[in-house]
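Page header: ASSEMBLY MODEL / two components / 667 residues total.
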Amino acid sequence: MQVANKLSPFFENLNFERDDNTMVINFGPQHPSAHGQLRLVLELDGEQVVKAYPDIGYLHRGIEKMAENMTYNEFLPTTDRLDYIASTSNNYAYALAVEKLLGIEAPRRAQVIRTMLLELNRIISHLFFVATHALDVGAMSVFLYAFREREFAMDLMEDYCGARLTHSAVRIGGVPLDLPAGWLENLASFCDKVDYELEHTYEALLTENRIWKMRLEDVGVISAEDALSWGCTGVMLRGSNVKWDIRKEEPYELYPELDFDIPTSDRCDSYGRYKLYMEEMRQSTRMLRQLIPMHSKSETPLMAHAPQYISAPKEEIMTQNYALMQHFVLVTQGMRPPKGEVYVPTESPKGELGFYIKSEGEPYAYRLKCRAPSFFHTGLLQELLVGTYIADVVTIIGTTNIVFGEVDR
Amino acid sequence: MRKYVPKDNVQKKSYYTDRFWVAPRVPREIVEDAHFNVVVEATASMVKESYIEIGQLVLHIAPEDNFKMMKLLKEECGYTQCSEQSAVDYLAQDNEFELFWQLLNVTEAKRVRVVCRLANGAAIESIESLYKSANFAEREMFDMFGIKVNNHPFLKRILMPDDWEGHPLLKTYPLHGDEFASWYEVDKIFGKEYRDIIGPENRDQARIDEKDTKRFSRVGYEVPFDAEYSEEKTDIEYSETVLVDYNKTPSKTLDERR
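Prediction written out in full:
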């Protein structure tokens, strides 16, 4: 090993031949396929991985610590920075956890908008997955096409909340705004566009492509038992033929009213998971189409009526003295949820995103734990990579669809 | 007189609380669900207290029983996934940690939270051999709280650097880091003796000093490079491409939405 000191610094990318003829190489954290800040230390025997050690923490910002020092509403924009590919799903998971703790429910129109935004974010995230996964494996053009559609989806998000990446589009108790005029028409045409492009561009380019199949088939095989044991959720679990989707099994928002399927795959490999991502996008557009007519049928309120916790609508604050007083207290001191603990899982595009909140009746959460799906999928790498070849390492990292904002938190 | 700041919990506190205000509690319901009843009966010998809080079964156990408990829940009650495990710091109140394991039964779609109180300095048994997800989760718990885990295959810091001092999620650890944290880069790159040479004002490159006229400018109050800080408004005219006057034309999107 190198002895590093001030005069001879440590060279991370030097390769070492060891006595037992294995080689230790360092992958990341600045590798383009490291999905942000993953550092992998791989021990290789020839081209085969003997040992893999995922080293994380390069993006650690102490979000759970920040949650203990911020009031509940203050913390919400911070959740954008968890899974920054699909921010609204983090905002929503957090807001839902606090709502469960408070025992309130968002009004119907807010639920419609939230479910739409969640599914739109799922499409954004899955398009990003297809784009970067294909790019990692070596298919450049899919990246360009998928990012084109992702831009349209982000334009929709921008029309709604003004932000493209860090949305903060959900509030505790509802949503801040109604949909702007013409948004639903744009959404409908976006759904058509995605369905068309799915069939004619991405799947036409990839699904039967023999290079794509050779690179993905039987790579990164996880058995159902292992997937459960390693804490895999979302597509990683459904790809191992476990039919588990929180939207169906522990429904929240409007999912019980929507008609959609949970695709599973018994291939247990990267190719099966890729097919699932494609199918999930179809299901998302299917849900969005069902949601569009629901919007006009719902009543107009956007925030739950719970004066103790949620500020009244602006009009009431400006006209009624008591609403103004409550608003003042809620802004300056923050809401005080009852004592208790809650764990609320939601199905984010990456898997089960859950928030555990322990409240001691103070305006600051006593403890907040963010159960991030990518964290556990990163842990899985240390077993999944062993025995594979170095060329498949990037495919396997890609197929886990990890985002370092939520791995390191 | 300086304001009293408790040393055992330096997290942010509410600046005002009504004297007569008593925090309500989320209702704890008795177990009525058929599946949860089976779980409670199967684990009755180890469980001190069981109730349902917001739809999930909570089981309180003794810290020595955790492995036996998880094994039973996994093998007999079908809880095949450990979604999450971590700790809550109650050192200031009880000199204890509260540990929780969040378990999931995929076939029944039920969740159970196993909770135990662990004395400060005591170690807990690893459940890594039952649930592999505990591998990372226990490392994170060790990193963040300093709770030792027995029989973990590779108990090592995970998010913080290996040579870090202190455990960030303890209530005694300040939000902006302690003395060690603030000098970490300087100590590591230059050595401890450079602390005095570099000085506290230069140790953080991202630090913004409002009064510093070398690196930070205040729009409308600019002064020449290295000149004294000024409270007086300066009349510098910028071209419109540099400074946008947001007051001149109201935003289009807002207008449309009204």
